[in-house]
Amino acid sequence: MALSTIKPASIDLSATFAFTGTVSGAGKFESQLLHVRDEKSANTAGGSSSSTTNNERVLNTVVTNEITGASLSSDTITLPSGTYFISASSPTNRGGTNRAHLYNTADSSIAVLGTSENTQTSDTTPTRSFITGRFTIAAQKTFKIRHYTTSAKSDNGLGIQANDGNVEVYTDVQIWKVA
User: Fold this and answer.
1) pLDDT per position as a tens digit, 36-47
2) What is the DSSP letter of 125?
């Protein structure tokens, strides 16, 4: 049996996809970004973790700051009033059950909880807790990233170095002002 070729019909879609409006302004995620993270020199571990406690994560580098009134100082993020969306993550090595969170130091409260994770204390496979969510503050507030771990690990409990000759990146935080 011979196969025959089916030829598609010619269809004019130009009217279907015609655009007559205008585009103005950028979306919420194209601007108003604060991107900070923990950078360490090449071949440097993320630091030691403590057991059954909230380890304060180092934040020492501003990658981008497009939010007027936002800043980073001494591992502390300052944000002006507004509504924000955060996407952040933090690694742990042999941390046991663990979870990172965005901590509002001004109000002594957790603003956004991260994902619950687990890594065995005998396993060298690290895990990463992700902090994702929206929050609103009525006045300027200060924040830290904290990471609860049930197990202690010296030197690289807060991240294993890549040893590839490049700067090491551990905790990474992106916050957009959305309103």
Assistant:
1) 999 999 999 999
2) -
